[in-house]
Specification:
This protein is mostly helical. It folds into 2 domains: 124 residues, Rossmann fold (3-Layer(aba) Sandwich), CATH 3.40.50.300; 114 residues, no CATH class. It contains 13 helices and 7 strands. The longest helix has 16 residues.
Length: 321
């Protein structure tokens, strides 16, 4: 499973959709020094070791009846893996320095940018723990392989920050042309740059980094490096706009001409009849004839909340940093 910017999003959504009454908590197993991982997870008693000046209940007890995300679980030390396995099997936790186990009820979600099976074969991850964690697996591909989700992701990220700028067609189109080698973190960085540059005005191409501006203008090769040989390159902005007008906004018609699927030819999700056409265009601004679920559900085309995907016990999106 590869790392993604929003790895906490899907586990948190799973928690909020469940009937669990406890909190959602997360720990990055790679960011904590190996000697402290057990203390953070299982807790310790005061005086249990040098520097233990106060009692720590540990994340398992603090998350009782809730959901605990073990981020980068593949980097957990082997000794801690053995204790984690015991906790999963017995549903009891023993703090460092304690003599009595305490019962817990915690849902565990693991996320890692490693392929855990390869770590098992290399002797760096316990096979029995892998079997316990691999009960339900979600594979989240990198952003470049789910580019049709980008408009929804953009509106979600902007709405999360309270940004209400209108999105122009040119802005979204330029984002769609980029192949996002650094995944969602790169997208977040681009948006963080564009919003202050726009100064409250509609987000447009000129607010993007120069590379994205040039690609949108057709000055750079628009095909992705991973595209199969023989696949057609994307048309430039003017050609796509002309094609949409010629096809009267019909996504299927645009897709047939481009020899692409509907998702790759439009900004509209495949959500049934409401997503069968794209807006007519005037310049680089949307002049809406039909709903554009990816971008808005209001006439002013302001940002709405979308949904992001992130990682849970499987392969997640590309490393973003």
């Amino acid at each position: 499973m590869r790392r993604a910017q929003e790895k906490k999003a899907s586990p948190r959504a799973l928690h909020e959709a469940s009937r669990r009454t406890g909190p959602f908590r997360a720990i990055n197993c790679a960011a904590i020094p190996a000697p402290l991982v057990e203390s953070e997870l299982f807790g310790h008693r005061k005086g249990a070791f040098t520097g233990a000046n106060r009692e720590n209940p540990g994340l398992f007890l603090a998350t009782n009846h809730g959901t605990l995300l073990l981020d980068e679980v593949g980097d957990m030390p082997l000794e801690a893996q053995a204790k984690l396995l015991r906790v999963l099997e017995t549903r009891e936790v023993v703090a460092i320095g304690a003599h009595q186990a305490e019962a817990i009820d915690v849902r565990i979600i693991g996320a890692t940018h490693h392929e855990l099976r390869a770590l098992v074969e290399a002797g760096r991850f316990r096979a029995d723990l892998y079997a316990r964690l691999n009960g339900f697996r979600i594979d989240v591909p990198p952003l470049r392989d789910r580019i049709e989700d980008l408009p929804t992701l953009v509106t979600h990220l902007l709405a999360r920050e309270g940004v209400k700028n209108v999105l122009t067609f040119g802005f979204v189109y330029a984002l769609l042309l980029h192949h996002w080698p650094f995944n969602v973190r790169e997208l977040v960085s681009v948006l963080n740059r564009a919003v202050p540059v726009a100064k409250g005005k509609p987000l447009d191409v000129q607010h993007l980094p120069e590379e994205l501006q040039q690609r949108a203008a057709g000055k750079l090769q628009t095909a992705r490096p991973t595209q199969a040989a023989g696949r057609q390159k994307r048309p430039d902005a003017a050609a796509l706009e002309r094609l949409i007008r010629e096809e009267k906004g019909n996504v299927a018609g645009v897709a047939r001409v481009l020899k692409r699927d509907r998702a790759g030819a439009s900004l509209v999700e495949r959500r049934g009849p409401r997503a069968r056409a794209v807006p007519q265009l005037s310049g680089t601004r949307y002049k809406r004839r039909h709903e554009a679920p990816h971008l808005a559900r209001r006439s002013d085309l302001r940002c709405v909340r979308g949904a992001d995907a992130d990682a849970h016990a499987g392969r997640a999106g590309d490393d973003g940093a």
